[in-house]
Amino acid sequence: MPHPCLSCGACCAQYRVAFHWMESDEASEGGVPHALTQRLDPHRLCMQGTYSDPIRCVALDARIGEYSRCTIHPNRPSVCREVDASWEYGQVSAQCDRARAAHGLAPLTLADWRWRDAADNDGPQPDDNGNTPSSPPQPPIAA
Ligand code: SF4
Ligand code: SF4
User: Fold this and answer.
1) Residue 86 dihedral angles phi and psi, to the nearest 5°
2) Region entry Disordered: which residue ranges (predicted)?
């Protein structure tokens, strides 16, 4: 079973993603690609597409509920790194559940993380063979 976020993407098409302009690659090396942002106010930028209706981040490559990938994953905004998928770390994430529900997807359960169990340690998943789990597309939070 793959990481659930890789077949979801709902949160990247649900929340407004705003962050301080200092996170942009114009201000910080390796930062969020400035070309994919728009200015909100003197202090904040947002990801293009997340202050639109419907919301869909410009960096999202996904068919929601089928496959999902953040095309700027290593350079995504801090807010996108801060929200966990439900049960990824042993507790519910209200933002994850809400985004999935808005896109007609059932909330994640503990069963969705079975692939990380020690008993399932011989497959191609990121944590198999003793590796640390990777961080798949992380959800944004509303500003
Ligand atoms: S955090 Fe939740 S809503 Fe966001 S991609 Fe992962 S499973 Fe989907
Ligand atoms: S994780 Fe990537 S695709 Fe999703 S909202 Fe953040 S920048 Fe956009």
Assistant:
1) -55, 130
2) 116-143
The residue written with tokens 């690659």 in the block is 25
Coil, strand or helix at 70 = strand
Name the residue ranges covered by the structural domains of the chain. Answer: 4-130
Residue 17 Cβ < 6 Å to ligand 2: yes
Pick from 59-63, 88-92, 137-141: least confident: 137-141
State the DSSP code for 74: G
Residue 142 has pLDDT above 90, yes or no: no
Q: Which atom of ligand 2 is nearest to the CA of 36?
A: 7
Contact 9, 60 (CB under 8 A): yes
Distance CA 99, CA 112 (A): 17
- Reported pTM: 0.84
Of the pLDDT bands very low, low, confident and very high (cuts 50, 70, 90), residue 121 is low
Q: Are 28 and 78 in contact (CB under 8 A)?
A: no
Res. 126: pLDDT tops 90:
no
Best CA proximity match to 57, nearest among 17, 96, 95: 17
Residue minimizing CA distance to atom 4 of ligand 2: 12
Q: Is the pLDDT of residue 70 over 60?
A: yes
